[in-house]
Amino acid sequence: MKKSLLWFIVSLVCVSLISTFSFIGCKEEATSTGEAVEEETEEVTEEETATEDTSAAESATINVSVLAGWVTTDGLIPAIQDALVSEGVEIVKFEGDGGTLQDTQMMAGASGTGEFDAMLAWEALMPLMVQYLEPLDDYLIAAGIDIDELKARFYPTVVDQITTDGKIYWIPIHANSQLGYARADLFTDPDEQAAFLAEYGYDLPQPNEIGAISFKDREEFSDVAKFFTRDTDNDGETDLWGYAPAGQGDHGECVFADMLDRQGLEYFDAEGHSLWGPAHPENQEKAIELLTWMQDLVQKDKSVSPGTTGMQMTEVNQLYKEGKAAMSFTWNVDFWGENTKPEVMEAWGNTKPLSWSIDFMNTEPENQGFMSIIGYGLSKDSKNKEATIKFLLKCLDEELRKEVHSTVGLPCGSGQIDLTNWLVENNLSPGGYIDAITTVGSFWPVSKTPWTETSAAREVTRPNLEKLLSGSITPEEFVKITGDAIEQIMKDAGHF
Amino acid sequence: MERFQKKYNIIFIIPALIVIIVLLIAPMVMGIEISLTNLDYLKNTDSFVGLKNYIRAFSDKLFYFSVIRNITYVIIVTSFNFIIGYWMAIICYQKFRLNKLFRFIIILPMLLIPASAGLLWRFLYNYDIGIVNKALTVLGLGRVGWLIDPNLALISVIITDIWAWTPWMFLILLAGIENLDKHILEAANIDGANFFQLNKYIIIPVTSPIIKIAISLKAIETFRTFDYVWIMTRGGPGGASDITSTYIFKQATSSLQYGYSSALGIIVMAIMVLLTFFIVRKWIMRAA
Is the ipTM of this complex over 0.85? Predict the structure, then answer.
């Protein structure tokens, strides 16, 4: 009995030790854990004293949230860490997927724990998290930065998103826009051009000097998509689709929302009513017209694969890489680095993809699409604000960005105008990226007003869009179902 | 001695009790607490609403459908896991060359983590570039919308689950079959029993305790499936493959209705507890 008891105690101690070390091992440390933790715990909780303590001479550790496995933070954070070593700042990464980061950061913000020094957010999350952040203007001015000059470096719509009530809350590290790719070997082939002219009576659109194609309107785009849809090996199955958009889930909804924005429609009006719901019957025809066009591409023209409802951006790009799509549309900028590798370009005659923006969808010149933007903000509960500001300043550093783009291959710019031009000039981004990013007006995926119910509204759209593209529901049914549901969501939220 | 042993029994139980309270009871109690509120990060609400969330759940058609799909999923997956696993175990019980290699190949799918398996099959099923449709095209059968056809999406995920977890059933059943008394089988052979009679009258009855435990554990585990559905279809197309786990997840993460999703989770947990109670009491304890 005594022997059993002894073994039991020994095993309990072993399990406890293993659990403790595993827990400690889970947290990634830039340098030795002991010193950093000791210095951090020595800093008192009062803000002023914490700021005084983290001088350049002492090291400070900051907790920064990063999206797990995302190339931008995977490339950028180590580069910033290297740059900040001499300034005594150590970065501890908190990695998580979107859902985890959203929940953890919001809970930390709501409870004021100061767990994060630099918080990461994307466009949908930014308005929800502003309440947990401190404005950056005073810090930037103290660092010698002219606020107006800083704002002028960014595209105007980027500035709209990163500011609230005129104050800067976010430093963007990633600004992406949906973009089309097109197979250069098909578009620039003289035989293809002659055949298109013979069939349609006008010239096949051609790329400009930076490899960007412009379509005149939707009809021209549909003609080109139909022209390139073929059964190349005569087995009765289409092997080359004229157009391949993402149709599933979040990425599918992004295609729809971008097109919707360019019709002059967003999800909500200024009071929060669904812009194609019961409160706005006058907009329903416009929405139905767009949806009919999208459905016809799949069901009538058959220039889009029915497999689109099962594809997100990775599958769309894979289809394109295998040469089975003449044109693709999704968050294509993410794949530029991959698609310009020689071994990948073999599928389409060893030429870089051409690119095209969706601005031909704009029914009015002032209508614009939407952009995805991700940035860092300073947590108002941070105990290392000075060190965090140093981190944020490095996020703004264009030369550091250029270096990381050249070596690691970050997919997108940060919304800075000069940086974007440099990326295109140096073949690190497709030519169409400039068109795409300058014709966006809304970062908030569905409306210029940052409604917190956006995610819920998009969750209504996603499954119904899949049903629409597969032909299970009509555009009229889509408008009715989603319009009513979104209106109800906003009503339940107490907006009217 | 007995009194001494009884005294020390409590000491042995306390650590386990602490673990159960901290890791099981406490989160459950918090979950029940949240389910009685209208915690919603969109509406910024967090007040006690009693059983309102439960009443709403019982009138939620989409939740009902997700439960029905979940039960269907469990029945089909577990049945096929057993049928295929059993026959593979019978085959591997025989002596033949490369038996060990065959066993190794059978268990390979089980070594993939569910997320990887889901991703793999998502690409295999791709309408345009997936190997499955390429093979069907070569055979002249044409492409199938495995993950895009609402009538086929859940079945496609079920096939993946069966592929991934039949090896587990195979291992359990093989262990049971290999522990059979060989004399019984030899005696039956001498008496002229054929292959099917051997299985029906000897192998299955004798290994039934293990079979019941394996099926019970698989059914309970399968009811909690999330990975395959989420990775492969996200519950689509159009919600056609939504099961309880994905539906509850969407309520929490997209709609940010934590109070309601907690209530759904408690209801599912109650179903699981009833199911487990029935299985453990009627099957496993009797089998033991």
Answer: no
